[in-house]
Amino acid sequence: MLPEPYRLHRRSDFSRTVRQGRRIGRRDLVVHVLLHDEQASGPTPVIRVGGPRFGLIVSKAVGPAVVRHRVARRLRHICASLTDELPGSADIVIRALPGAADAPSDELLRQLRSGLRKLGTLPVGANHEV
Predict the structure, then answer these.
(1) Do 87 and 78 contact (CB within 8 A), yes or no?
(2) Is the model's pLDDT at 3 over the cut of 50?
(3) Which end of the chain has the lower number of beta carbons within 10 A, N or C?
(4) What is the side-by-side order of every strand in the sheet holding 90-96?
(5) Any alpha helices (H) in 10-127, and if so which ranges?
């Protein structure tokens, strides 16, 4: 389970990350990353508690409700395993593509790590693959 301080909740946080952050696509996932130290300071300062925050987008294209919830649970578990390796200023939104329903968890972890490395968020030496 992903603890509360590591979750994105507000629509504005999701929108900001998707629109202002960097994005990379993988076979079963699209990863959006916004580092708050890169972001220009706006009218309201961002107060951060905890480490990196994750948001998930699992649409009906992935499958029926049971499948979507299973994919979301697996992605939350994967995100919880990455919190110590990522910068605390990162907001990360993961959009599951239809292939995520059939992909094994270790493949989803590999794709997420690959995307985060390409975006420069995960250090290259961090290779704790399952």
Answers:
(1) no
(2) yes
(3) N
(4) 22-25, 29-35, 90-96, 53-58
(5) 11-20, 65-82, 105-118
CB 123 within 8 A of CB 71: no
Residue found under tokens 């593509």: 97
pLDDT value of residue 130? 44
Q: Is the pLDDT of residue 88 over 80?
A: yes
Q: Any idea how long the chain is? A: 130
What's the mean pLDDT in 41-67? 81
Q: What are the structural domain ranges in the chain?
A: 4-37+52-119
Kindly report the CATH number that applies to the domain delimited by 4-37+52-119: 3.30.230.10
Verdict on whether the full-model pTM lies above 0.90: no
**String of DSSP letters for 64-76:** SHHHHHHHHHHHH
CB 60 within 8 A of CB 49: no
1 Cβ partners below 8 Å, 6+ apart? 76, 77, 80
Quickly count: other Cβ atoms within 10 Å of residue 63's Cβ. 18
